[in-house]
Design goal:
globular, alpha/beta, Rossmann fold, 136 residues
């Protein structure tokens, strides 16, 4: 049913909690797991982002940690890193890898000052080429 599962990861608590759900789904359906981290470049006119997730080293470490977490459960995971707007990159990668499911935490690091209707999760739900499972 779910041949390929895309799991966008960041350093949020919600992403860590969603990992358990991802583990269950991938094991149940013998799915291919793809871990994705998206680095958003600063907008024009803004100074460089000082967020730790903006550094390639921090992203590589996050992906390696997530890959190890799944490997401990007997799951081999592919990793991908992209740069751009998170919601658009998540949907583009889902389309590129022909994902059958995207699993995300309900609130990650992409919640904006404008609120939930401008969050990464909300945008992915509305733009995704496949079903999206949101883990509270």
């Amino acid at each position: 049913m779910f041949k390929t599962v895309l799991f966008p990861v960041d350093q949020s608590r919600e992403a860590r909690e969603a990992a358990d759900v991802v583990t269950n789904i991938v094991q149940k359906y013998a799915s291919r797991l793809v871990l994705l981290s998206v680095v958003e470049p600063p907008a024009e006119g803004e100074s460089a982002n000082t967020d730790a997730m903006a550094s390639p080293e921090a992203v590589a470490k996050l992906l390696k940690t997530a890959q190890t977490l799944f490997a401990d459960q007997g799951i081999l995971a592919d990793v991908m890193e992209r740069q751009g707007k998170a919601a658009f990159m998540i949907c583009d990668v889902a389309d590129e890898i022909d994902a059958d499911l995207i699993v995300m935490g309900s609130r990650g690091l992409g919640l904006t000052e404008e609120g939930s209707t401008d969050s990464v999760t909300y945008r992915v739900i509305n733009l995704s080429p496949c079903p999206v499972l949101i883990v509270p």
